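Homework-ish question, so no full write-ups if that breaks the rules, but can someone show me the predicted structure for this set?
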Amino acid sequence: MRIVTEHLSYIYNERSPFATRALDDVSLTVEEGEFFGIIGHTGSGKSTFVQHLNGLLRLPSALKRRAKRGDTVLTVGEFDLADRKTDLRALRRKVGMVFQYPENQLFAETVFDDVAFGYKNFADGKPSQEETEAAVRDALTTVGLDYEAVKEVSPFELSGGQKRRVAIAGVIVTKPELLVLDEPAAGLDPLGKQEIMELLHTLHSSWCKTVVIVSHDMDEIAENCTRVAVFAEGRVKYVLPPRELFKRTEELLALGLDVPLTAKLTLALKKRGVEIDSDFTLEDFAEKVLARRRTC
Amino acid sequence: MKALEFSDVSFSYGEEGFALKKLNFSVEEGEFVAILGHNGSGKSTLARLADGLLTADEGEIRVFGELLTEKNLFDIRKDVGIVFQNPDSQAVASLVEDDVAFGAENVGLERGEIGRRIDFALRAVGMESYRTATISRLSGGQKQRVAIAGVLALKPRVMILDESTAMLDPRGRKEIIEVVRKLNEEEGITVLLITHFMEEALLCHRAVVMNRGEIVMQDAPANIFRRREELLTYNLALPRIEVLCNRLREGGIPVTDALEIETLAEEIAKCVS
Amino acid sequence: MLKDVSFGQYYPVKSFVHGLDPRLKILFLIGFIVAIFLAKEFLALGICAAVLFAAILFSRVPIGKVLRAVRGILFLVLFTAAINIFFYQGERVYWNGPAVLLQWGIFRVTQAGIVFSAFLVVRLVLLVVCSSMLTYTTTPVALTDGIESLLTPLKWIRFPVHELALIMSIALRFIPILLDETERIMNAQKARGADIGSGGPIRRVRAIVPVLIPLLLSAFRRADELGDAMDARCYSGGKKRTKYKKLRFSWRDLVGVLLLAGVIAGVVLMRFYPVFPL
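A: Not a homework solution, just the prediction itself:
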């Protein structure tokens, strides 16, 4: 699904002493098939932005919009979110959203029921037991869990990493075309992190054509994303592929953001008169350095 | 002097097997130790035992030579401070200074002294200008610094951070690590840093790796990370910088194990045209 | 972001009223409520209203904000007024014209009825405005401190004043966190197609389960973590404890005391020596 945003602004608690401008004239386009990264500090507006993508936050009513912001555009695939009448249920079926620490949304008695929750909610009419079972089995298998072994287990008895997988299965059970994730690997140990990223790639190449991921981990971003948007103070500062973005290491550091290890090294080497032009993945960086090796 | 000493300590949560098995472990006063391990390896159990939040099934725990028992729990807790994982569930009060005061009030200090402790603690974590701020409006890193200050107000000699950086963004993590390092260097506080961020362990004097309730490795961080295969069997990943160093060495650039960006860049620059 | 709007009424500005000792404000509120209930004539209520108005001006809380508090009880106000207009039995004549203005079955609108219901409306509005002024100008923390301090004499009968105050302050601190959490969980379930807040009562209750269970679990988890954090900071009940913050009287409190005590005494006196009785 293609996401098009033009001149999107959002203010929390408008007309109160707590009013905060969370988004300020944001314009950006995510093409279908991308693995799109969003980076920025807590409070930079990135979470507010992604909550617009499945209609959890709405534009101010159409009338006010026309008067105030005239040209605001927000479309996700075939859905026009500036239109009050957009079918949110149909939209949410196609846009899966995984929030931070998604295991906190588990509630059912068994893993099966929890994963089936979204499937039943979105089904047209009442789905048959076989249909539900097939969908749940698919989802759990995709996230790397053994369906037969976990379906009757209480989700609260699982380990942290497994809970997170179940939660993700509960989102992808409708086979969304667009998957939005807010820091999917936060709080996991290094191995758990690695496994989640591998899972996202599996999903990207199977069900969810487009993936949007919010992350603080710049190495993760550099290794995985096709393009990256940098949010700061409610605005979009850059939208670039990692290869271009991390050439601006000094500007990113000035914004108080981190950069991947490879970018830090590229900068440190540049100061020593060595220019390395890599795409900032570890693999490519090492290769480019080794290619320049002379015997010593 | 040994700040913490575990001798043959075992602990189990009910029937699910041992969380800690005959653990022997000690920390010297003034040391900065990292404890690494995947989720469920027993690192948090260790922290809770040291502070008397859990009681060992077997074995002895000594804090500065004194045996930890039910009776001296209160005094031991003055010496051993602990900061937990979730920045949102540790504060008792809504305002920064009220929360920092909590521990000092609990041990019955007089008001003037509490005020001085708050000054000291907030300065130590660099939050003195937030004294009357509302905690819920702070960033995650700031909340954790307030939590550290709340512990510091008791003037502990040992500070345990039980995955206190796990829920923070990189900026918050950096803030916490810097504060802790300063406390160790300037105040001489013994620090036990429990973490699963391998990069954080690089700053410590010693790294301890736990697996299934046992200590399986104990050495200077650089030496630990050299034993790649072994770490992998404990479900731990190497810090990225170590992965890169390994890759470069395989390709014939003889980098050392300084694991520090500037040094590594220097070494690479020497071998590259 | 839910927390900022719906939690607490505190209006964060600095003013004379904000700076008053919370204990005083609580006592004043009680005194004021008593005075309002004792008032038997419009003049007494008028004095109360004038003092309250002055307090609002000095507090720098916008009038509109204060009146918004009244909106919450608008229905109650209108209902009371209607009942009294239609059923009040008095026959007294206040202005030229018949005492009974309208008679329709059991409904009877009298001059006295209109005057009396106006009186009740003014009384209700004053009650709401003065209570909300307390919450607008006092932080929740100061409020609990004030209550704890005022309840101190109850320690004599072994009433756990300290524990009560601590529970209140922890509750206040966790309300915004739990509101935030509720919003997060609701969003997560909405994203999974949950239909919250529509349909009949049974559907509504069923729809709340996926929000309620995670919320309760999270609250328990937090309580557990908080308990550990308190233990680790040497908490062992109120016995040996000292308090860092002591509430202290200042000159402005004295001014406040004198002013308000005078007004309340005056209003109470007017009950017994009415000037313009209803």
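Now go work out the reasoning yourself. Hint: Chain C is about 70% helix and 5% strand.
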